[in-house]
Structure formats: C-alpha cells, structure tokens
Specification:
mainly beta, five-stranded antiparallel β-sheet
Length: about 160
C-alpha cells in the first residue's frame, strides 16, 4: 500500500492498494440509526485495515439514501442513481444494481469517471460545493481510495 498527495494538494491523500495485497473486500452497514465508524471498528472481531463512510445517509436517522445492498440483501432501493460500486466474486466492480449478482453494492453519487472518461455532471448540484470527500476508484492492478480533507473540493476540481 502506498499513500501520497498530488502536487499542490497536501490535503488530498491517495491510498493506492495493489489488489494482490487485499485479502477481503466488504461493504457493511453500521448499526442503525447512527453507529460511528469508531464504534463499528471496535465491534469488528477482525479489524479492517481501511474503513470509510460510503454513499449518502440521513443525518436525522442514519438511513441510507439511494441504493445499498449488503450480503446479497437490498437494504435500500430507489429508482434514482443505480450506478455505483459493488463486489462480485470478491472483486470490486462498477455497475448498475440489478444487472449483476452483487454481493454488496453502494450507489455512486455522482459518478465522476466512467470507462476512463470524465463524466459531465448535470445533476447533484445541491452537493457541488467545496467539501471533504472520499472517492473510490480502481483499475486492473490497484484500488484507490482518495481522501479529500479541508478545504475540500467541488466535483470539477476532483
């Protein structure tokens, strides 16, 4: 695993993880209504190496927004924003919920890059402001987790 910051962006950390170093990928729903990441981590018998929030959830009650699947069970399903990341046969895969046999899945909102090309974002305007963000990406060799801290970034900057 390698951690680095791009030039002129000390507040951005890119975690590059070679796929051969990953023993297990999993998406798990924290206890509802609002278990913190620390509480979740402390409750794990086998401690994850990397843990982050994924997707959007209600700050009022902790309920997931958009589409979310855990262990093959759909926890939340909407007709909106069905694109995202899931796990198929232990591998991270971009796709659309309902079109693959995902074990786990979370909607990506908004999807920034698709098939190696920048996506023109014409939606999610209510979220297009500078904020701390987490971005997930992958290629044939690596998985990338990108953590953007203060002052944050808007979508175009990302």
């Amino acid at each position: 695993m390698k951690i680095y910051s791009p030039n002129n962006y000390s507040y951005v950390k890119i975690i590059e993880i070679p796929k051969e170093e990953i023993s297990k990928l999993d998406m798990a729903l924290c206890a509802q209504p609002r278990q913190t990441l620390k509480q979740y981590y402390d409750s794990c018998a086998v401690k994850p190496t990397i843990l982050t929030n994924g997707g959007f959830f209600s700050m009022d009650n902790g309920a997931t927004c958009f589409n979310y699947m855990d262990n093959g069970v759909i926890i939340n399903s909407t007709s909106s924003y069905k694109e995202g990341f899931g796990i198929v046969n232990g591998e991270l895969k971009y796709g659309i919920i309902g079109t693959e046999r995902f074990e786990d899945f979370v909607s990506g909102y908004p999807v920034l890059i698709k098939a190696g090309k920048k996506v023109q974002i014409t939606y999610a305007k209510e979220l297009n402001y500078k904020a701390r963000r987490t971005v997930l990406a992958y290629n044939k060799s690596n998985i990338y987790l990108i953590a953007i801290e203060k002052p944050g970034m808007a979508f175009a900057e990302m």
